[in-house]
Amino acid sequence: MTRIYTKKGDDGSTSLWYGGRVPKADTRTEAYGALDESASALGVARSLCGGESAEIATDVLDLQNGLFIAGAELATAPEASERLEDGVSRVTEAMADELDAVIDRYMERVDLPGKFVIPGGTTLSAQLDLARATIRRAERRVVSLKQEGGLRSEAVLKFLNRASDAVYAMARFADEADPALFGGREGGGQPQAASELAGEADST
Do 131 and 68 form a contact (C-beta atoms < 8 A)? Predict the structure, then answer.
């Protein structure tokens, strides 16, 4: 039997990739832990994708892989960052740029009024909205890490910013075309006003 417990974390600490230990409540741990949660939330969304949502399932899986790459980078102490590999354990600018095309591909097929979107049109879109919110939280945790001087490259922040936008676009594509879903507060004509509820209006 393979044992998954080491008992080393019983004191409330955890090990980093390539060495070192930090408290489980450390800003770095909070950051890559939030990414783990985001990938799991996306996993639920992917499990809800039927044959008619194969496009979304493929794009969600790509995002999950990207989040694991970001998690590997954040779980590495800055002094060991030279051991990371682009696109495998370190986020690249290209990974973020590639999401622009994903966002445009969905949004060109969605007609949004200028109001806040009320999550819950479909089970899939609601889960995607939940995943989007968790990615936003992960982004905030990474910003905190940056403010503490613990972020070696800002590419991961750009990637997370685009990732949440991409999931938002997928959610709107998966939604029912029901005006009632857009009956919340006026969004000033901004199609991504749902994100602004958390004070994160400038998502692009």
Answer: no
| Residue 115 contacts residue 56 (beta carbons within 8 Å) | no
Give the three-class secondary structure for 177: coil
The Cα 72–Cα 142 span in angstroms is 13
Taking the C-alpha atoms of residue 200 and residue 183, their distance in angstroms, rounded to an integer, is 20
What CATH number labels 22-176?
A: 1.20.1200.10
* Domain segments of the chain as ranges: 22-176
**186 forms bridges with which residues in the sheet?**
115
Residue 169 and residue 109: Cα distance in Å, rounded? Answer: 10
The amino acid at residue 31 is A
The per-residue pLDDT for 13 is: 58
Structure-token pair, residue 89? 């354990």
Tokens representing 156? 């991961």
Whole-model pTM over 0.70: yes
